[in-house]
Structure formats: C-alpha cells, structure tokens
Fold this protein.
Amino acid sequence: MGRSVYLDYSATTPTDARVVEAMMPYFTTFFGNASSAHRYGRKAEQAVEDARATIARLLHCKHEEVVFTSCGSESNNLALRGAGVARKQREGRGHLVTTPIEHSAVGKTVDVLCDTMGFTKSLVSVSRDGRVDSEAFVETLREDTAVASVIYANNEVGTVQPIAQLAAVARQKGVLFHTDAVQAAGQLSLDVRELGVDMMSLSAHKFYGPKGVGALYVREGVPLVPSQSGGSHEGGRRAGTLNTPLIVGMAKALQLAYEEREQRLAHYLHLRNMLKEGILSRVSDVEVTGHPEQRLPSHISFIFGGIDGNQLLMHLDIRGVAASSASACKTGNPEPSGVLLALGYSREQALGSLRLSVGQDTTEDDVIFAIDAIVDAVTALRKLKASLGR
Ligand SMILES: Cc1ncc(COP(=O)(O)O)c(C=O)c1O
C-alpha cells in the first residue's frame, strides 16, 4: 500500500497510547462492577469517581453534575428528551428551540419529540458563515419554551457559536440551554460557569479517547427524566452498569487535551492554514465554507464548483487521502448536506463539499501530499466532466 494520510479527525481520532495504558487494568485486574459493595466493586467505583472528578475539574462543575453515557448521540438524546419531557410534564412547556445546523442526534431527536410527544419547535436562522443570529434567537424563545439547543462548534463547517451570549439570553427567559460540545471538546473552553449552559454533551472519541463513551453535564437542579430506565446508576439519570475502562479513558484523554492544548492548537492552526492556502492558491472555483475566524482550529471545509463531493472522496481515497464530504455520517449518501442548504448554498454547490480536519499526528509532509492529491483529483474530475459534456 502507498502512502496514507488521514485528514478526518473530526469524524474520529485514534485513542492516545497513554489513554489505552490508563484503561487496560480496568478490563482485567480491576474488572469489578462499580455498583458492587465488595472490594472489587469499590476499586471500580473509585476509578469512576476519580474520572468524574477529573472531568468536573475541567468543566468547573460539581462531580454530581457529570453523567456518563455511551456516546455524544446519547448525551444529546438525554438532554433533550430528559429535560424536555420533564418540563412539559411539570410546567406545560412543550416548545423546543434549535438551529438548522445541528448534528442529527439533536435535529432528529427534536423531530421525534415533535412527532410523537406533542412538542413544537422553532429553528433559529443562521448566516451564510454559519453563525446563529442572537437577535433572531431571542425572538424564538417563548414563555412555553422548555429547552434551547445550539451546537457549540459545527461538525460540517467548523463555525463556533457565541454560546455564552446565547445561554445568558436563554437564562433570562427561563429557558434551559443545552449545547452539543462534541466537536468543541479538546479545543475550546469547556468552563460551564463561563459558558453559562445548563447542559453540555461530550464524546471521548473526538479528543483521543475511546469510542463508546460520552458524558452529559447537567447543572444541579435541572429536571431530567431518564431516557433509559433500569437501575439507579448516575443518580437515577441513566441506567446501566458503568463502563469503567472507557470512563477512565475519557477522563485521561480530556485531561491530556487541556494540559497540552496550547501546543496542539498551534500545531492544528499551522497545518489547517497550510491546507487552506495551498488549496485556494492552486484550485479555481473553490470557496471556504463556515466562518473565516470563528471556527475550530483543526477544521477547514470547502465547496468545489462542478464537483461531486462523494466522487472526490473516492478519488482522494485512491490517492491515499482520507477526508470527508460535509459530515462523516453522510459519507456515501448522495443527498446534499442539510447544513449547507440552511446556510444558503444551492443543492449543486452543497454536493461539492469537502471537509479536512487535522490532528496531532498530521505533519507538514502529509499536508503537502494531500494538497497535491486534491489538486490532482479535482483536475481529473473536472476534465472527465468536460469530456462527457456535462
Ligand atoms: C457535533 C456532533 N454531535 C454529536 C455527534 C455524535 O457523537 P457520537 O459519535 O459519540 O455519538 C457527533 C459525531 O460526529 C458530532 O460531530
């Protein structure tokens, strides 16, 4: 096999070797159930509570405000279903506010709540660079709004939202504010006191932790009906035996991400800017999507005129470059990205999207190799299109 360059760190990251090392004893030696009363259980429980304390310290919240889940999607479900249903039952608030650029774990969950549980929703408009309009946001909040949910950093176009500003407005109106911080975690501040959010979703595999574990920050006092019933784990908010090794891994990964944040972000920004400049200077009819400055340091996204993003991905894969079109979850799906349509792009433009995301292991040589491959693939696809007269 020839050279391989992975530029899809927004889809997932490898698990850091130091994280794997921290997790290993909890698969074998310390395998106890964290709910058991004996010494095996106590050892596992201690590891879970140490992990909870580490995460709480990084989020500036209380230990009990961290609820472990199985992934970012589950955290989003728990926040919206849990707080939405609780407020509807207790206060008759059955209105939800969100944006058209959420990950499907928020967007579809809101739709399911509307279709099956009598909720209504309002979507806040976004600008072409993907920022939520704060005046439009205020206007959508109503007396019966239960929860507002706005993504912290968008997975497709990388735009970062003014979360503290939006959360403050929601609080003034008595609306619970949730943010999906799955892409933001590891790169942006997760200080929930500064952000002023009531709930925040995280997923370990986006910051060099293992797949299959996430967390939801739930501010003390926020009513939450568990979206999964059973035992009284996690203060009755999420039933299921705690996955000790994965929880230990998540805490270790988040700790490393913030200890090493300065160096990591400088590395990402340097390589991301190289990619951006290389592509803009060598390819015609190409546009950067998302906000020019308010965006994730590791992320750059484009629209190439007259190109099918999925074909481009295949041509890049053949040339050894792994990237993504709009969103990893949609790869292989020829439908244009709803996010790009919501930003005002046409269907044809939206089909020509490419997302590149760099990581700790990416080198300058990788970036040079990837730029050459992208220039080559775009040129080949355009030539083919011209020769077919389409
Ligand atoms: C913004 C955002 N939210 C939620 C998720 C879902 O996270 P998980 O894969 O842990 O379910 C993703 C994953 O791509 C994401 O990018």
